[in-house]
Design brief:
The complex is a heterodimer. Chain A is mostly beta strands. Chain A has no helices and 11 strands. Chain A has strands at 4-6, 11-14, 19-25, 33-38, 45-50, 54-58, 61-66, 71-76, 85-92, 99-101, 105-110. In chain A, the strands form 2 sheets. In chain A, strands 2, 4, 5, 9, 10 and 11 form a 6-stranded mixed β-sheet that branches. A 5-stranded antiparallel β-sheet of chain A has the order 1-3-8-7-6, with no helix packed on it. Helices cover 0% and strands 50% of the residues of chain B. Chain B is globular, with a radius of gyration of 13 Å. The chains are: A mainly beta, B mainly beta. Chains A and B meet through strand 5, strand 9 and strand 10 of A and strand 5, strand 9 and strand 10 of B.
Chain lengths: 111, 114
């Protein structure tokens, strides 16, 4: 079982819709959870971090964490064509320093 | 967060040769890491670069193939040794922010081995 699992997509949504990205992880000792955005040919960019159960909102982005279910999600409201990218779910390992990435979900927002 | 400068940004190398990638952070950081991202794949951690001591390698990666240096808290190098076409990939330097929780990245080195 992979440590971080994501649906590879592609996920296609119309402009203005809500994009929902999901992720599960296997390490129950993980304490930190992240969503990175990666445009083609670029390095990953951190867009959300979440450390406790529940929701965390930042602008059009909402991260949701459920440690009991080992589940992390990212909602993007009012999706824009500029949101088209690969979204990487990541966790820190039990030691708390190494960041482990999922395979990523490709998102396409159609104008 | 701090800024990471990585060079070269890309290179085309002959098989059997070695390439050293440099990573410079504009402030002192405790933790630095090297990742590989093969075409169409996610990031795989190669090793943790430890300041003043040998790097800690992940399963499947060995020091003879990927020697790493970290002479101080702002600089690290990764060497890809005795390259083969299978080493063609993007190599990314990463560091943790001041709170040692969030990872940020250099711009990556795109390596093609012919």
């Amino acid at each position: 079982q992979k440590e971080v699992e994501q649906n590879s997509g592609p996920l296609s949504v119309p402009e203005g819709a809500i994009a929902s990205l999901n992720c599960t992880y296997s390490d129950r000792g993980s304490q930190s959870f992240f969503w990175y955005r990666q445009y083609s040919g670029k390095s990953p960019e951190l867009i959300m971090s979440i450390y406790s159960n529940g929701d965390k909102e930042d602008g059009r982005f909402t991260a949701q964490l459920n440690k009991a279910s080992q589940y992390v999600s990212l909602l993007i409201r009012d999706s824009q064509p500029s949101d088209s990218a690969t979204y990487l779910c990541a966790i820190t390992d039990t030691g708390g320093f190494k960041t482990i990435f999922g395979a990523g979900t490709r998102l396409f927002v159609k104008a | 967060s701090a800024v990471i400068s990585q060079k070269p940004s890309r290179d085309i190398c002959q098989r059997g040769t070695s390439l050293t990638i440099q990573c410079q952070v504009d402030s002192q950081v405790t933790m630095m890491f090297w990742y590989r991202q093969q075409p169409g794949q996610s990031l795989t951690l190669i090793a943790t670069a430890n300041q003043g001591s040998e790097a800690t390698y992940e399963s499947g990666f060995v020091i003879d193939k990927f020697p790493i240096s970290r002479p101080n808290l702002t600089f690290s190098t990764l060497t890809v040794s005795n390259m083969s076409p299978e080493d063609s990939s993007i190599y990314l330097c990463s560091a943790l922010d001041g709170s040692n929780t969030e990872a940020f990245f250099g711009q990556g080195t795109r390596l093609t081995v012919v």
